[in-house]
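Sample entry (421 residues):
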Amino acid sequence: MRHIRLSTGMTRSVMRVAGASVAAQGVALAISPILARLYGPSDLGVYAYITALVSTVGIVAGLRLEMAIPICPSDEEAAQVARVASGIALVTSAVVALSIPLVGVSVDDASPLDLMPYLWWLPPSILTLALFTIMSQLSIRSKDFGAVARRNVTQAWTTATAQVILGYRPSPGGLLAGQALGRGFAAALLWWSNRAALGTKSAISHRAIWRRYWRFPALFAPSAVLNTLGLTLPVLMIGTWFGADAAGQFDLAARLVLGPAVIVGAAASQVLLGEMADLRRTSDPALLPLFRSVALRLTAIAVPFGLAVMVLSPWVFAVVFGEDWEQAGLNARLMAPVAAMSLVAGPLSQVFFVLEHGSTLILVDTTRVLLLVVGGGAAYMAGGSQVLVTAAVLGAMFIAQLVSFVVSWRLVAIHDNSFQP
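Predicted structure, serialized as tokens:
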């Protein structure tokens, strides 16, 4: 077996996409004090709640067919998969729009957040998220990491500008509108950079696409919902149990602590996905050396990041955001271990897609959701305070990330052993 190290090209790609992600996160960080003064905790709480619903539905709006794009054997087949996924996303958004008058009332009654006026942001937000993801996968396949980098910065600037402008009459609607505009504009730019690939005609039928990639809707779509619930359930539970203000305090902390870890980790995972998919198509598809190398590099970033957040966050929140956001600073301290672990485990979870282990991923994500529901639910039912319930939820998130990392490592080792002479 050959010894695989990160190539100069891969390192440069990681740095380019990660640099753009850091720049985008820098925009979000810079704009957060302004948003915290334009919009109150309750506004941010409703925004976080609706965004959680968008994320949960939007991630499967295309039935996860877009995740097959990087591993398609030909560009023509990849373009056909992208077109099929886009059509499904459009239908999904239409179904959501038609269901709001019926289901929306029940959702609104289930929480004390007065959601109904803002549920109409769900269809356009779901569609833009789905198209954004599909176009991103096309860029990853072609290794057009420059387009991916520009996407990150463009989305951040457009979203921030729109949310600040709309803050002259602060409401959750202004935050939701800014988010939809930023993501939609970034998706349009990605479509422009991939228009030639999308215009490629293919003789491959839709039926053939479904036969070849049925595992993605059947296995990866349910898993994606479970995975997203692992991220969105905390704010949904806290908002439902403790109200809009508590959800806003949690969301601000998550944006400033978990946000950087998720975004930088997502940038690394996009590059890693492209490299692993390429490597798997070679005659010597050894993945474990690459897995170990990436894990070590991510750990070298994650540990100091987590320590800095744990030590500095209460003081930073008090100085930058004021006394109204004191609880957000305490939440941030509790989130530090989760942020560090997710920075390592998140990118490496791409092996589930590369190795097409959908059933295993479903088990991992089911475990994550069960840990959250049992841990947070038990703390709440026992009469725990907001801080205690938050700590229980975050502890469950940390354990779930650790489980994902261990299982990913094991799957790569089994894969490599199967190619031993």
